[in-house]
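Bug #77: duplicate submission created two jobs. Keeping one. Sequence:
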Amino acid sequence: MTGPIAKDGILDMPAYVGGKEAVDGIADPFKLSANENPLGASPQALAALKNLGDPSLYPDGGARALREKLAEVNGLDAARIVCGNGSDDILSLLAQAYLGPGDEMLHTAHAFLIYKLASRATGATPVEVAEEDLTASVDGLLAALSDKTKVIFLANPNNPTGTMLDADDIARLHQALPAHVLLVLDGAYAEYVEPENYPAAFDMVEAYDNVVTTRTFSKAYGLAALRLGWGYCPPAIAEALNRLRGPFNINSAAMSAGLAALDDQAHIANSRAYNTQWRDWLVQQIGGLGISVRNTQANFILLQFADAQEAANADAVLCANGVIPRALVAYGLPHMLRLSVGAQAANRAALAALEKLKNGDAK
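Kept job's structure:
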């Protein structure tokens, strides 16, 4: 081979593959594979996108106005907030800053794939920790600690299982960690949990030097196309990330829409209420067909089948009827499908397709 050669291990990594977006022969299918908000973005955010300034000008490299608004809405310190091109940007920056060859990163068995990919890109070794009933095991994570452990990535609620640890479990996990081990709490689906029930962990970030929590505008805020996320960090970690991130890593459109979206918390409350209503409806209706369904703390449900072949058959029937679920083979759950809560028509189409599946009619 001639030409530049990638670092060892890079080409051995699998490329991230998102949920399927289209079905051959089906016009305008319902895409329930990406956990997008069926209510879309806030009308205020959409209005902001129509009134952007001069695109020849660079955006604010420090995202000052956005950080200050995030601090105001969440009762935080703006100096501790680092904004990124999606929250996976923050996750990757954390891996770059705190992992390297010879280090280990702990993640739960069915965790967001980016944790492994971001860690392997640094030369570190991801260590998979078994779950208990598809839920992160604090005891398992603590047992997996070694002198090589540098970072723990923990999604709460988790994608794709939708399970969540409570504040006491997170505190117990953190209390047992050495001070040099970084605990990263990924709150991508936080807004779908009732605020009084969600362990935001912002207080832990302010009390300790080894806890970071991340959030995204892609899910409940409905701004997935704009790629906007943020992390709340101890000062030293914020400083490290700000040295690593790109100088203009947030574009003006994303910042304008994000600012407007934060001013419309009623849209978040409506999105959460809609999600709870239709998530529970899907669980009840699909469960009534005799299909095993797992409810979650996020904006999706899990369909559980006897084996991988049965799940693949269900996937094919749903797609043939214009509904795209998320296969979970890459997550180690080949016998399951993840189904996002969609618009009413999409939810009803999913139920109708699964009725056909149970009746032996694929079309």
